[in-house]
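Tutorial sheet, problem 5. The two components below are modelled jointly, 440 residues in total.
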Amino acid sequence: MQYKKWRCLICDYVYDEELGAPDDGIPPGTRWEDVPDSWTCPDCGASKDDFQMEEI
Amino acid sequence: MTAPITVLGAGHAAVTLARELRKLDAETPLRIITADDGAYYYKPDLSKALAAGKDADGLIKQSPDQLREQLNAEVLTQTPVTRIAPDEHAVYAGDTRYDYSRLVLALGAEAIRPPFPGDAAARVHTANHRSDYAKFRAALQPGARVLIVGAGLIGCEFANDLAAAGYAVTVADIAGWPLPRLLPEVQGRALQAGLEQIGVQWKLENGVQSLNLSGDAIRAEFGDGSGAEFDTVLSAVGLRPHTALARDAGLECALGIVVDAHLQTSAPDIYAIGDCAQIGGRLLPYILPIAHAARALAPTLTGTATPAKLPAMPVIVKTPACPTLVSAPADVPGAWEVSGEAPDLEALYKDENGNPIGFALTGKATAKRAQYAAQMPPVFDPAA
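Model answer (structure tokens):
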């Protein structure tokens, strides 16, 4: 299954499933649905529901 | 009909709060009143607009109409509120009265404009608002020589963005190194060197003594007696919270509008959030605290009193020439402990009891953000 990217609607930070967010303890390859709901955007603090899948 | 929850201001704090409110409650009347055009943008984008290939208007993310629809809110633009009347539960814009049920002050801050001696003072730009930034960009000719006054966060970010886009940038500051309040000297030097590599010139330990017109250019005289000509001057010496409205209404103000753990001001039903607010004795003029504060204030406004708990929130300084990340220590005595080799340096600030209360990372060390952040005490803890 292809990795997807999710963009923060507030600040444009991109969560790339392939890269994960290792700084926040989210290993590379973590699918968006497996990112905990408590995770917030590292740049602006927005919550997961402020992200939108990005078409590639 | 009950009076709406009313937000003064339409910047990031106001819109973030409104979004959080609408996640909890889709219907309670909401009114946003702003003195400007009401177009929503993300303020940190100002200092990376050139790298993103955008002008001031290109930064707009939502028009007022889009905000009205997305937030199910009334948005009053070009409506400067002139008075808050806490006893009447109302605000006034001139003679027009707007009742509120609860009022949120998200008034932001204004750039401090130092009174430069000389006849070119009126040519000095600031860039804390999109409209100011638009004027700055309009004045910026290709390849212009730009003097940035102030080597703080904003000054360094603009220096990086402008130098990378081919402008001849000089940064002047009376401090000895960039980000003097946030970085120990050795890291400040690393940032200085990184920016030098993309062409930034420095006038450190050097105040600007005067700015005078010299033909089409502006001649700056510095504290060390030297002088140079520039085409454009950008002042980035700091921000001052907008407190006048609150102060005139009798609300307690210090550096900013003083709020308690529930972000309530000294007046009932009036709250403050973002750059204008002071919580736990501190101003937090950064982006991340707004999201945390908004997630507490939204339930408080809808009837579930929720204290704000603000964790340590490292600030990413947008200087790709030397990646830098800071978690500012509170203003208490202590000392930096630095390790690593420039530019990849990690610094931990410990108070006099040896407790870590701040950190700063530069270069490749920025990858250790999580490890350091975990050691930090909360910035504001209502239980403390």
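Marking note: The two ends of chain B are 40 Å apart (CA to CA). Full credit if you identified this.
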